[in-house]
Amino acid sequence: MMEYRLQPVAITMGDPVGIGPEIISKALCDPRVTACCLPVVYGDAERLRSGARLCDADLCVEQVASIRDARHGGPHVTVVNPHPMDASALSWGQPCAESGAAMAAYLEAAIDDALDGRVAAIATGPINKHALKMARIHFNGHTEILACKTGTRHYAMMLAGARLKVALATIHMPIHQVPDALCAPDIATVITLTNEALKTRFGLASPRIAVAGLNPHAGESGLFGDEEERIIAPAIDACLARGILASGPHPPDTVFYRASRGAYDAVVAMYHDQGLGPFKMIHFDDGVNTTLGLPVIRTSVDHGTAYDIAGRGIASAESMISAVTMAASQAAWRHRHRDGRDR
Description:
Blueprint: E1 8-12, H1 20-28, H2 31-34, E2 38-42, H3 45-54, E3 60-64, E4 76-80, H4 97-115, E5 121-124, H5 129-134, H6 142-150, E6 156-160, E7 165-168, H7 178-181, H8 184-200, E8 208-212, H9 227-241, E9 245-250, H10 252-260, E10 266-269, H11 272-283, E11 288-292, E12 298-301, H12 318-339
Parallel strand pairs: 1-2, 1-5, 2-4, 3-4, 5-12, 7-10, 8-9, 8-10
Antiparallel strand pairs: 6-7, 6-11, 11-12
């Protein structure tokens, strides 16, 4: 049996004035991270050193201009910096055009290296939409940048933890817009992406996917709404016809509990808070955001830049650690899948 060496995983710093440098510093000192991959930070070395000092983390940081110059292994941490700047001019918790431009540059460089096969996966630190706007970058966040850079048309957000995995049919929109935004082909696409990811990135041979209804009691046979019968059920039927083990529409008030107890491998939720509310009740500290449908593996922390506590060294690194270890795990599963080892 062929053995696989640890693979490089890109960890993007996110906004260098947020909690990214702190939580990355903590994660790099955690044996769960060093045991699963060769971490390469995309960011600013001086900001990482500052974050390490805040957390009393013992890091030896080496900055390079390109991952081609990285030295894997040994006691040092390699930082790829595609956006050199005067880090001393930045202040914790104070986003600006410079920090916004930097966070985007870190992500774009990591995407390029992932597409070229120089890193096996990307784990992203938190960014901020307003800082992107300050830098005149017209994307709302990570997912949109990733989709544009990789030419991806169909993608989905999944929040993943050990007990519960939730994919979203719609993401960031007002509640009153959700019913009109739902359509059977789009829901079927999310179910299909979820099924593929569970197979090739989480190693499940026959994933069981529960699809939540939109309305109370999944519509109660049309008494509380007809979206279940008119839109959601046809999407499930189309997936069943292709051999996907999808079921529903399930009542939203019970399906997440049942999934967390092992009845299903993932739930497809109809809107953001329907899925993320139950998920964060269980995985608030260690939940991971992973993007489905991309040609590269991307995971992320499931929280923001936390400007209010940045620079204090108190931010939890659990989500960052989980994001890196999940990225490494997905990369390993994909490697085996491509080699045919799990067939």
